[in-house]
Amino acid sequence: MSWFKRKTKGITTTTNEKKDTPKGLWYKSPTGKIVDTEELEQNFYVSPEDGYHVRIGSKEYFEILFDENTFKELDADLTSKDPLKFVDTKKYPDRLKAAQDKTQLKDAVRTAVGKSKGKELVIACMDFSFIGGSMGSVVGEKIARAANYSLKNKIPLMVISKSGGARMMEAALSLMQMAKTSVKLAQLADASIPYISLCTDPTTGGTTASFAMLGDINISEPGALIGFAGPRIVRDTTGKELPEGFQTAEFLLEHGFLDFITHRKDLKNRVNLYIDLITNQPIRS
């Protein structure tokens, strides 16, 4: 006979009375490592135990790359229109509004100019939190304008890619951004202005097929997924098992698609070292 008998059925503790850990106090990496969020921030949003690079956005990359987080944002108010009157589960303008309210961003890329280790640098950084970092007309236009700014002022350009590919709500208009951005980068090359491409997790679709792979130097963070179609699509299309680590940054480095992989804490130094070398400047410590 059981010595314990429950007097009431069900759990009677109210939600407000539960002693749950406050949201955001801890972060659990995909490998199961637990890290304090303050420690994570101090470590450039990289899990110190397993080296996992947490997805971050333009706010964090600007903090890492610009001296004292000081910069001038370019074309900050540029927003998408709805020329195709696109509707899926909701109207495109409604989806844009929801994404803007959630992320406090105007679109999936921010562009800015500031000093990095004392010298000017233009950075275009994509935000995956805004409709999966999808490449629409605004993304293409802002990157093209950032390239124009670099061209006019003879300042190196860096693009940080983090994208699921073309934005389906803009259809062919989205795909046109591949050609537009590629032309602008060709103009930078003709003017001998350095262009650095940083591929982060994930960099896929039309982004990979255009500006993300056109850098004078193409670099990545450890473990980033980089490819055109995702692994599942490739596997289903070819009917073959994929090599181990397929489409990871390490796989692409081994096969010559990347120049190097860098830990996020070394990113600022390594980018500036490359710029100094290619522009024949004294090495900055």
Automatic annotation (TrEMBL):
It catalyses: N(6)-carboxybiotinyl-L-lysyl-[protein] + acetyl-CoA = N(6)-biotinyl-L-lysyl-[protein] + malonyl-CoA. It is found in: Cytoplasm. GO terms for biological process: fatty acid biosynthetic process; malonyl-CoA biosynthetic process. The keyword Signal does not apply. Residues 1-23 are annotated as: Disordered. Its EC number is 2.1.3.15. One of its GO terms (cellular component) is acetyl-CoA carboxylase complex. It comes from the Bacteria. InterPro entries: AcCoA_carboxyl_beta (IPR034733), Acetyl_CoA_COase_Trfase_b_su (IPR000438), ClpP/crotonase-like_dom_sf (IPR029045), COA_CT_N (IPR011762). GO terms for molecular function: acetyl-CoA carboxylase activity; ATP binding; carboxyl- or carbamoyltransferase activity. Belongs to the AccD/PCCB family. Component of the acetyl coenzyme A carboxylase (ACC) complex. Biotin carboxylase (BC) catalyzes the carboxylation of biotin on its carrier protein (BCCP) and then the CO(2) group is transferred by the transcarboxylase to acetyl-CoA to form malonyl-CoA. Acetyl-CoA carboxylase is a heterohexamer composed of biotin carboxyl carrier protein (AccB), biotin carboxylase (AccC) and two subunits each of ACCase subunit alpha (AccA) and ACCase subunit beta (AccD). This is Acetyl-coenzyme A carboxylase carboxyl transferase subunit beta. It comes from Formosa algae. The gene is accD.
